[in-house]
Amino acid sequence: MPIDLLGLTAHELAEKIVAREVSAHEAAETANARVGEVEGDVNAYVTTTPELTVGRAERVDARTKDGGLRPWEGVPIAVKDVLSTRSVRTTCGSKILENYKPLYDASALLNYSEEVVMVGKANCDEFAMGSSTENSAYGVTCNPWGLGRVPGGSSGGSAAAVAAGEGWWALGTDTGGSVRQPAALCGIVGLKPTYGRVSRYGLIAFASSLDQIGPMTRDVRDSALLLQAIAGHDPRDSTSANVEVPDYLRELEGGVAGLRIGVVTELMDERIDATVREVVEKVAQGLEPLGAEVEEASLPHSRYALPAYYIIAPAEVSSNLARFDGVRYGYRAPAEGVHEMYRRTREEGFGDEAKRRIMLGTYALSSGYYDAYYAQAQKVRTRVIEDFRAAFSRYDILVSPTSPTVAFEIGAKVDDPLAMYLSDICTVPVNIAGIPAISIPGGLSEGLPVGVQLMSDHFTEPMLLRAARAVEEVADFEFELKP
Amino acid sequence: MSQTCGPEAILAGEFEIPYCLVGFPVNYATGVVEPKTKRELDRLLALAANVMPWLIAHAIEMLEGRDFLLRSRVRLPDRGRAESINTRPWTIVKLSPESCVKIGRKTRAFRRSSMISEDEVRYVANLARLGLTDDEVKKMSEQLGAILDSVEQIGELDLRDVSPTANALSLTNVFRPDEPRGELSREEALSTAPDPVDDLFAVPRID
Which of A432, A420, A456, A427 is nearest to A384 (CA)? Predict the structure, then answer.
């Protein structure tokens, strides 16, 4: 009987490819066939690359003969469309980059393999700005758990692709929760590594001081393996950390005995749906019998992280998106003079949310307002970091929900930016402080997945993953392919 | 100007004293369009008790000491400790009209109403070289105002002695040797351009 490849996790598939029980070519064909089956319903991808997928898989297979294949190579992957891929169009979910084909690959991809068996470029909110993947110029992605619902965002296409089996795992990016929140809403595992752990070279910048690339996977072991593949110092990204990359798999099964775990009171208040809180409580209590000490922890300034974020991130957006001016790449609107060309190119090329954030950031940085907004927000950032520092002197791991709700209906929040922004109340403090955090499915509410978020101190991913692995054990949840 | 504030305004006018009213309107006569709930009014009043002394103290601080006298060096009250303003030893003797304008300009961020005016939206859009339709300008003035209102929660915090953080890992400048490296060829660099002409990026007439 042939192996049910779609039933395997990425690390199981990787082992079989290395052992030559399964070829990368078979895996690639399986992924492409699955895309053919469900993509019409899900719309996880902006661009699929079936020929490239198979071609590269064949080259990986040629290398398995010599051995030396790293254990993740050959596993078909979905790549968020904000990561530059050489000669493969990279849109950032925006019309302004409709026909843009980068001249180089993102460093994270080169770390993964010289032949990334990529299924395609996954849909996302425009320039990764959003929490529902509705802000894409290439249509909304549907949540495989309920096709009328959003997959979360901004890495919604990556999350949906993994949940639907259109690729065994995916790369997303996380600026305020964009890996963790869609992972939570689609019932998969999403990890935001420590700021600087993964090179941002080739990641088309949204908010440079917050952006980080992260794995989106079926389980925690896959997450550790994919982090192993992409982590590392990169001289081409001056903000990448020159810190040794540990073995993320070695202590994965070490359990939580002796770990001090704090459930964050401020992130368990009435802003979070009661059913979501119940799941998080239950998971946290479930860790006690395994030897963890579970208590309540406090991050008193965490409620100010979101308002600070909505100054800092748009400020960086207004600067980063200035490069899209119709001169060197991307869309250009016809015009008589150069100023009209800039204005019309950006008017026609950017969608609503991108415009909103460019405006907000430009306003906050403009003369007379800088001190009132940006300078204050940077100070709030200091307070949030101090909160975490104090909390991590008492606790190894902090716990909260990932998202205040389960997946919401498509269209429910699209005209109310403030309501949409609240999707990130639990995830944003993590980016503000630059620490790592992971979302693991903790159970179901109304038949939809609920994510539990674990947070830990800078560069402590091995412990974070070990705790996440324990959460996976106590959670009332099993990965199954949808739809 | 409603009845409540009328007498002061008229008196100030008769004495030719520059006069400025800072407050928030609550009734239809003062231009309120959407009624607010009692709860919301209570919240705003509580907020104002914190904001007002802070605003006044900062306004004074910005005057560079030319037009007013302070009996002794003033230590500004903490924002959030409204009662302290009554106990500080300061007296304003005279404010020139220029100073009032100056205060107004420097504190305008704190006077902002819930909407960004459409003119201001157009001004910012021009800074960002972003074309907006009239409908977008209207929508933007409401939405940016609402977002900034929610951002102003930050004002509840006393942040005066806090240093700002730009990067969570406290990275400072990272240098590499300044040596030429293999980068893109001219042809490659121009291959993505909307209008490459003679090895250059061409743009429309510079106006």
Answer: A432
CB-CB neighbors (< 8 A) of B150 in chain A: 307, 310, 418
> Mind listing the pLDDT tens digit for each residue in A379-410?
999 999 999 999 999 999 999 999 999 999 99
- Among A457, A384, A8, residue whose Cα is nearest residue A195: A457
pLDDT tens, residue by residue, B95-140: 445 554 454 444 444 444 567 899 999 999 999 999 999 999 999 9
- A:62-101 residues touching chain B, CB 8 A cutoff: 100-101
Beta bridge partners of A280: none
Q: Does the residue A426 lie in any domain?
A: no
| Residue B104: half-sphere exposure toward Cβ, Cα within 13 Å | 12
Domain extent, residue A67, equals 5-230
Whether this model's ipTM surpasses 0.90 comes out as yes
Domain match, B98 and B30 both = yes
Report yes or no on whether pTM surpasses 0.90. no
Active site residues of A: 80, 154, 178
Determine the residue of chain A that is closest to B154 in CA distance: A304
Residue ranges of chain B with pLDDT lower than 70? Answer: 1-5, 22-33, 48-51, 53-54, 57-114
Residue B130 and residue B52 share a domain: no
What is Dmax (Cα atoms) for chain B? 76
Q: What is the CATH number of the domain that holds A109?
A: 3.90.1300.10
Most B CBs within 10 Å, among A242, A376, A422, to test the B interface: A376
